[in-house]
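User: quick one
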Amino acid sequence: KEKHKILHQLLQNSTSPVDL
Amino acid sequence: PEAADLRALSRHLYEAYLKYFPLTKAKARAILSGKTGDNAPFVIHDMKSLMEGEQFINCKQIPTQEHQPQTSCNILDAVELRFFHSCQSRSAEAVREVTEFAKSIPGFINLDLNDQVTLLKYGVIEVLIIMMAPLMNKDGTLIAYGQIFMTREFLKSLRKPFCQMMEPKFEFSVKFNTLELDDSDMALFLAVIILSGDRPGLLNVKPIEQLQETVLHALELQLKLNHPDSLQLFAKLLQKMTDLRQIVTDHVHLIQLLKKTEVDMCLHPLLQEIMKDLY
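Assistant: Done. Structure below.
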């Protein structure tokens, strides 16, 4: 899960465009 | 499934596509054919226009990233790197758009979360390359949400290995564009690519294959209705998926080469995540 942290976040809606 | 259900699925995916992807094929083709009146794109065809274009991009508030190496920003030699960083920023944003689109495919969010990650990891670059095709013609490509047209000759004139990055995509796109898909066809094709049950490391393949089969039926029906005179279009389109995998493999190898040879290069963390142990 750690290896794909941002993808997990994107899938679970916890990353906003600003974080990118 | 009944034809009516398949048509409803096609409409749903088309609506999601319009919602999440800001530059549609219809809009891109209007820009490329000069039908947008005063809003013609800024053309980048040499280093001078690239620098002017960079300012143009900055004025339009395209998201930039913090990881950009500030030290080499003003050196002409670093132009390629700087441009490459802008491309990475846009690609990361595009990955976010593709993720939202994937989540809108009925059944996708009910799949095992690890499988959702795997499908995106392996599918997203293929999707991005397919989505480049409508932005391209034989002479160049639209970038920065259609605000800029960059010529193919200019991209070929960049130093190695940057000059090798886009040429395979042009060759693929020019052929792909002869299929004349529209945005509603594209929406279904992108969903088919995402729902590939043969990605390495998938835990539960069966539900993915079932979802893909339904979307494939919807795509087949869509092509029959939307392109009644285009023989074997469905089969031709599926064949493109093989070419696509080779392009992605070559692309990832080029990025890995860049990482080794360009000291100032840092890869966006999201793209790094996707490309690590990919092929």
